[in-house]
Amino acid sequence: MSVTVRAAAKINLHLGVGAPREDGFHPLDTVYQAIDLYDDLTLSVAGEDSLTVAGPPYVDVDGIPTDASNIAMRALAEVACGDAHAVRISKRVPVAGGMAGGSADGAAALLAHDRLHVLDQSDEVLLAQAARLGSDVPFSLVGGTARGRGRGEVVERIEDLGTWWWVVVPASVGLSTPEVYRHFDRLHPDAPAQPAEPTGLLAALATGEPVRLARTLHNDLEEPAIDLRPELGTLIERGEAEGALRGMVSGSGPTCVFLCAGRDEAMAVAAGLSATYDVVLPAVGPVAGAHVVHPG
Ligand SMILES: C[C@](O)(CO)[C@H](O)COP(=O)(O)OP(=O)(O)OC[C@H]1O[C@@H](n2ccc(N)nc2=O)[C@H](O)[C@@H]1O
Ligand SMILES: Nc1ncnc2c1ncn2[C@@H]1O[C@H](COP(=O)(O)OP(=O)(O)OP(=O)(O)O)[C@@H](O)[C@H]1O
């Protein structure tokens, strides 16, 4: 008996970051969107704990711990009541890419555990478990388009009837999320306590018009990420020259994402970028949060 859960990568359409709190975390006002780039996690009961990861060549499988420090194993340690488990992850979300790949696996493990053991816990309980694992994990459960506050873990769904086409360009070497936040602090020692609100973006989302959304995309971690990796600035300019409405760093980076006018435009931008960049992935959002699927 096994259960497979699919969980999506995220983009931050808006990422407002405030001055660090006393606990070291930064207050956020963010708008997440789940896109159709997925990890699948399969869970079964076993004699001893084990974890294996497989993925396409662009996924840095060697950069993923397979011991108790893997976020999927941490999730199980949080909730398991004695049983050992075998975990298989089929990974497509770039590692340390700013797309919440680890968080997706943490959310998938929580949901798979709940379903495998027929616990049928409430959303409230699962969301509280997710918040203990990491700031992005509750959103990985919820999916769709949602506003995140607190340190990102307080998630509120947003009605989003749009279909948004993206082109995703991962980097071959990841960036550390804490390092990007530390660099934000260096660049902005006088950052206000309150993060920037996504007022314009929420209005643009409601119109369903990509040109309007493009004008309101905002990421406070873009500047530190580009300062650490200047080539990301070149990539963003190139994607916009290829016809994207707007390019931006995804979360803490280094993955860059490009909003396009529609499906055909995304395919054209992807074809143009493919001449220079090895991995270029068209994607659409919003999509569902973590959910059970039949193993493929
Ligand atoms: C950059 C984002 O992806 C935007 O959604 C998230 O803020 C990162 O979320 P995450 O990877 O789930 O982060 P966590 O695992 O909770 O924290 C990892 C580290 O990131 C930094 N961190 C994270 C979230 C936050 N609001 N402030 C922070 O300063 C802290 O150094 C923390 O020790
Ligand atoms: N299941 C997992 N998948 C990927 N990385 C994991 C996993 N478990 C632990 N890690 C570790 O966590 C680090 C960050 O990985 P992750 O892919 O979640 O970064 P990220 O997408 O930049 O995160 P975020 O966008 O939430 O800040 C990796 O470098 C790796 O060492």
Written description of the protein model:
The model has no long low-confidence stretch (mean pLDDT 97). The longest helix is centred in the middle third of the chain and has 16 residues, at 101-116. This protein has 296 residues and is an alpha+beta fold. Strands 1, 2, 3, 4, 5, 6, 8 and 12 form an eight-stranded mixed beta sheet that branches. Strands 9-10-7-11 form a four-stranded antiparallel beta sheet, with helices on both faces. The chain has one domain: Ribosomal Protein S5, domain 2. Helices cover 33% and strands 27% of the residues. It has helices at residues 71-79, 101-116, 123-133, 137-142, 177-187, 199-207, 210-216, 222-228, 231-241, 263-274; strands at residues 2-17, 28-46, 50-54, 84-90, 145-149, 154-157, 164-169, 218-219, 246-249, 256-260, 281-285, 291-293. Strand 3 (50-54), helix 1 and strand 4 form a beta-alpha-beta unit. Helix 1 (71-79) runs parallel beside helix 2 (101-116), helix 2 (101-116) crosses helix 3 and helix 6 (199-207) runs antiparallel to helix 7. 4-diphosphocytidyl-2-C-methyl-D-erythritol binds next to strand 1, strand 2 and helix 5.
